[in-house]
């Protein structure tokens, strides 16, 4: 016996009702994954650009402002950007370069806490801390942005 046309249509409605929430969750998950990739790429770029400034201008406010400027749409604050100068001999020991000299390593770190836009996905994965870090050797000494030789002050 073949099911009637009406019974087949009812079966289709039930199948769609079962599959639709999973499909929507998958689509929104892809959207959130894209946002996470964008945030990761953006904070890495912000750290790189702030690091490039840190090797010629050691003014903390200027470096933090550059990182914030480069982190479009993430809403970073100055407290999310840390700068440390280390000796080239011990690049893993923080604050080992007591006085910044040419050859010290400028270590710029940008931290961002990613939160998924979808509440269900946010419950599943929680908050994810993304970190962008870069290390460059100091090329010029410039601690006051008002000096004529300072790139940021000119």
Can you characterise this structure?
It is a single chain. The protein contains three helices and three strands. The chain has 154 residues and is of the alpha+beta class. The protein has one domain (5-137). The chain has a three-stranded antiparallel sheet. Helix 1 (5-54) packs antiparallel against helix 2 (60-70). It is rod-shaped. It starts with a helix and ends in a 17-residue tail after the last strand.
What's this entry about, in short?
The protein is an alpha+beta fold and 154 residues long. It has helices spanning 5-54, 60-70, 119-125, and strands at residues 81-86, 105-114, 128-137. Helices cover 44% and strands 17% of the residues.
What are the low-pLDDT stretches, counting only 5+ consecutive residues below 50? none
Structure classification: alpha+beta
| Count of beta strands | 3
Helix content: 40-55%
Shape: rod-shaped
- The helix tally amounts to 3
Strand content: 15-25%
User: Roughly how many Å is the radius of gyration?
Assistant: 25 Å
Main sheet makeup? 3 strands, antiparallel
Strand order of the largest sheet: 1-2-3
Mean pLDDT: 87
Q: State the order of secondary-structure elements, H for helix, E for strand.
A: HHEEHE
Number of domains: 1
Q: Could you give the distance between the termini?
A: 87 Å
